[in-house]
Amino acid sequence: VQLQASGGGLVQAGDSLRLSCAASGRSFRYYTMGWFRRAPGKEREFVARINQNGASTVYADSVKGRFTISRDNAKNSGYLQMNSLKPEDTGVYYCAAQMVGQTFGYWGQGTLVTVSS
């Protein structure tokens, strides 16, 4: 599966942003989808993931209650709705896909989110 993230941009603290992840190739619905981010000077970190049918989601504590991950398998797309953004949410956001029993092995190119204070 090939992934392409989009929707990043420059926003102010407190604003909202919606990231999209478009998938192509092998059927998207067979994969768990996740979002990760890399802040400047830091390691890449997990943000959220959603299972194949969208019934189960997991979030990092730092975004819980502010971010919502979702997917539309009919459109081969995933999303990350980000509300109440903080400067510490700044980073490059990557979408990734994972087959059952495997690690996240498919990655998009990343989209930059910058939150100004």
Report on the structure:
- The protein has 117 residues and is mainly beta.
- Helix content is 0%, strand content 55%.
- The protein is built from no helices and 11 strands.
- The protein has strands spanning 2-6, 9-12, 17-24, 32-38, 44-50, 57-59, 67-72, 77-82, 91-98, 104-107, 111-116.
- The strands form 2 sheets. Strands 2, 4, 5, 6, 9, 10 and 11 form a 7-stranded mixed beta sheet that branches.
- Strand 7 (67-72) and strand 8 (77-82) form a beta hairpin.
- The chain is globular.
- The termini are far apart.
- The mean pLDDT is 96.
- The first-to-last residue Cα distance is 37 Å
Using only C-alpha atoms, the radius of gyration works out to: 13 Å
Q: How many helical elements?
A: 0
Main sheet attributes: strand count, strand direction, barrel closure: 7 strands, mixed
Given as residue ranges, the uncertain stretches (5+ residues, pLDDT < 50) are none
How much β-strand is present in the residues?
Answer: over 45%
SSE run: EEEEEEEEEEE
User: Fraction of residues in helices?
Assistant: under 10%
- Overall geometric form: globular
Q: Briefly note the structural class of the backbone.
A: mainly beta
Counted beta strands: 11
| Average residue pLDDT | 96
Descriptive labels:
11 strands; 4-stranded antiparallel β-sheet; 117 residues; mainly beta
Can you lay out the helices and strands and say which pair or pack?
Elements: E1 2-6, E2 9-12, E3 17-24, E4 32-38, E5 44-50, E6 57-59, E7 67-72, E8 77-82, E9 91-98, E10 104-107, E11 111-116
Parallel strand pairs: 2-11
Antiparallel strand pairs: 1-3, 3-8, 4-5, 4-9, 5-6, 7-8, 9-10, 9-11
